Amino acid sequence: MLPGGELRLNAPVAIPDGTAFGDRALRRCCENGQHMPVPGELTLVAPRRAKPPRHLADLAPAERRAAVEELGHKGFRAAQLSTHYFTHHSDDPTTWTDFPAKHREALAAALFPRLLTPVRDIECDAGTTRKTLWRLFDGALVESVLMRYPDRVTVCVSSQAGCGMNCPFCATGQAGLTRNMSTAEIVDQVVAASRALDRGEVAGGPGRVSNIVFMGMGEPLANYNATAAAVARLIDPTPDGLGLSRRSVTVSTVGLVPGIAKLTNSGLGVTLAVSLHAPDDELRDTLVPINTRYPVGEVVAAAHEYFVKTGRRVSIEYAMIRDINDQAWRADELARVLAFAGPGAWVHVNLIPLNPTPGSQWTASRSRDEKAFVRRLETAGVPVTVRDTRGREIDGACGQLAAADLLDPEEQLS
Questions:
Q1: Which residues are paired to 7 by β-bridges?
Q2: Contact at 8 Å (CB) between 31 and 25?
Q3: pTM here?
Q4: Nearest CA-CA partner of 7 in 262, 291, 298
């Protein structure tokens, strides 16, 4: 074990490594004093950094009332502030006409500090997919993605600045972990997306966020307390929260078994997604280094227990990587592993065509291999779909915009 909770692991399987993009990012990170992990190195404890300023969304309803009273106002003002933020998506005190004008600025300064500053937005899919790079108060970079479909609007949020899980095919993992995000920093990504929809800034006109996926930068269960509190803000009825359905919130994990157990017993009742990516420990030790601590069997058993206690079907995420994990025999092994935990109805496999990072040797599976993988799972009675990918032309893979921002302007053009 290294200082800061880092654990060095040796990768037992030979796989593609190194990219021109990653080499340049590494050089810039070293110049900035930021640590980038070596292959297989995990960061299990987030580096200590200054905490973000307190925000209304960090507080549970009773805590908001106490905070407002500490500022010298009547407790009912907390519900009014919550309505402005969670219902009207406004942190602009000039719109708070139900407050005396002389108090608005002070309340905004105390409970609505600026958490996210947009660096840039990139759009594709005729404007229905928007990826935003945000700069946090301390300069850390995170990303969120808004995806508008005919029947829903999904927002993919980050839970950490960077990630300590170091999966080698992930741009975020290549950059390492900067710090955990606060509850309000997570929630504010959703409120910002809701505000953009209110204003008709997204193609298709005004609308509302219907689904949240914790599949952006970071490992949500490595930042469990903030993630759980953020989920509570998302599903709490308005005006205490955003009033989203529990079923419409998905928390994804690479397989932190203790975190899955906490989520199982939390009562939150959201959808659990497990990024498995390989059915055998030998390969998964390399693709998902945390597997050396929590191997496939333990992860699948924890996921099955989640289903047993919550009644919520678990999603198994599986990135299809050409000639690495897409062999037909691995589909058979995946079906065997999932059937071992229980009948197939408890789980759904979500195959994800890999969105490669620039210059990477990793690439998506061939169409014929993907179809064969699907057939083998279906034959074994395992429910499976192939994810409809979005954002390939806008550095859609998590971490690509943030990693690119580490480069000099001239390097970004090379």
A1: 42
A2: no
A3: 0.89
A4: 291
